[in-house]
C-alpha cells in the first residue's frame, strides 16, 4: 500500500488537541487495512520525523435504527495515535 493512501487526514478535536499538548502524540484517521508498521513508515516518510510507537483504535460500523427499523449504518473508521520520539514535532495548525 502506498504511503499516501495510508494516512487519510489528521484528527482535530478537543481530545486530539489535549493528547498532542500533554504527550507527544498526534492522531490520524488511517486506512482500515493499514497496520502499525505501515502507519509508522508512512508518518516517518511524509513528515520526516522519528516515531516511537503507534496505537490503533478501530470503530466498527453501527446499525442505525429509526422508528424500530434498521435504516443503515454509521461509518466505521480507524484512528492511529502516533507517539513521536522526544524532540520531534509535527505542526498542523500552529498560529491558526
Beta percentage is 35-45%
Query: What's the quaternary structure here?
Result: single chain
Strand elements, count: 6
Measured on Cα atoms, how large is the radius of gyration? 16 Å
Assigned CATH class: Alpha Beta
Through-space gap between termini = 33 Å
**Low-pLDDT ranges:** none
CATH architecture label name: 2-Layer Sandwich
Calculate the mean pLDDT score and round it: 89
Name given to the CATH homologous superfamily: RRM (RNA recognition motif) domain
Write structural notes for this entry.
- The mean pLDDT is 89.
- The strands form two sheets. The chain has a four-stranded antiparallel β-sheet, with helices on both faces. Strands 4-5 form a two-stranded antiparallel sheet.
- The protein has three helices and six strands.
- β4 and β5 form a beta hairpin.
- It starts with a helix and ends in a 12-residue tail after the last strand.
- It has one domain: RRM (RNA recognition motif) domain (Alpha-Beta Plaits).
- The protein is of the alpha+beta class and 96 residues long.
- It is elongated and about 55 Å long.
- 26% of the residues lie in helices and 38% in strands.
Amino acid at each position: 500500500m502506498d504511503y499516501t493512501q495510508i494516512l487519510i487526514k489528521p484528527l482535530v478535536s478537543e481530545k486530539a488537541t489535549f493528547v498532542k499538548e500533554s504527550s507527544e502524540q498526534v492522531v490520524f484517521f488511517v486506512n482500515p487495512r493499514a497496520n502499525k508498521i505501515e502507519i509508522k513508515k508512512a508518518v516517518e516518510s511524509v513528515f520526516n520525523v522519528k516515531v516511537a510507537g503507534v496505537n490503533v483504535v478501530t470503530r466498527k460500523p453501527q446499525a442505525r435504527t429509526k422508528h424500530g427499523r434498521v435504516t443503515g449504518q454509521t461509518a466505521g473508521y480507524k484512528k492511529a495515535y502516533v507517539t513521536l520520539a522526544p524532540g520531534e514535532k509535527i505542526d498542523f495548525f500552529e498560529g491558526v
